[in-house]
């Protein structure tokens, strides 16, 4: 992502294909084209209903922004979920600066959800020589 940021000299957000039914958990991008693993983002919508999602690309919490994002964060008010939404600042930044989306590949754990956090911990614990055997035994006893 950093290499692509330097190539384009523009802000970049990381996205991953998701099921449309999961759109209510993500900021969803709208885009015009994709070239060289970068997608030219035209809009972003925070947690839309599946029928209102403009694509199946969900933002997955990895960003590289130009400094202007901070001035936009200061301007926004409470949004979806009664929270300050980074998505709202990104939408404002899009009006003055191009933003590209980079499709993430690989394993990603959604540590913003309880189950995602648990899966991440179990996955890493099973890869650790000090914890894997005891954890396997513990899981077997649970089942």
Architecture overview:
With 143 residues, the chain is an alpha+beta fold. It has five helices and five strands; from the N terminus they run H-E-E-E-E-H-H-E-H-H. The chain has a five-stranded mixed β-sheet with strand order 2-3-5-1-4. A hairpin with a 2-residue loop joins strand 2 (27-35) and strand 3 (38-46). Helix 2 crosses helix 3 (86-94) and helix 4 crosses helix 5 (132-142). The protein starts with a helix and ends with a helix.
Number of helices: 5
Residue share in helices?
Answer: 25-40%
What Rg do the Cα atoms give?
Answer: 18 Å
- Give the averaged pLDDT, no decimals: 91
CATH T-level topology of the largest domain: Spore Coat Polysaccharide Biosynthesis Protein SpsA, Chain A
User: Distance N terminus to C terminus?
Assistant: 41 Å
CATH class of the largest domain: Alpha Beta
**Poorly predicted ranges (pLDDT <50, ≥5 residues)?**
none
What would you call the structural class? alpha+beta
CATH architecture assignment of the largest domain: Alpha-Beta Complex
- State the total count of DSSP E strands: 5
- The CATH superfamily of the largest domain turns out to be Spore Coat Polysaccharide Biosynthesis Protein SpsA, Chain A
Blueprint of the fold:
Blueprint: H1 2-8, E1 11-17, E2 27-35, E3 38-46, E4 57-64, H2 68-75, H3 86-94, E5 99-103, H4 114-127, H5 132-142
Helix pairs in contact: 2-3, 4-5
Brief description of this entry?
The protein is of the alpha+beta class and 143 residues long.
Give me some keywords for this one.
alpha+beta; 5 helices; five-stranded mixed beta sheet; 143 residues
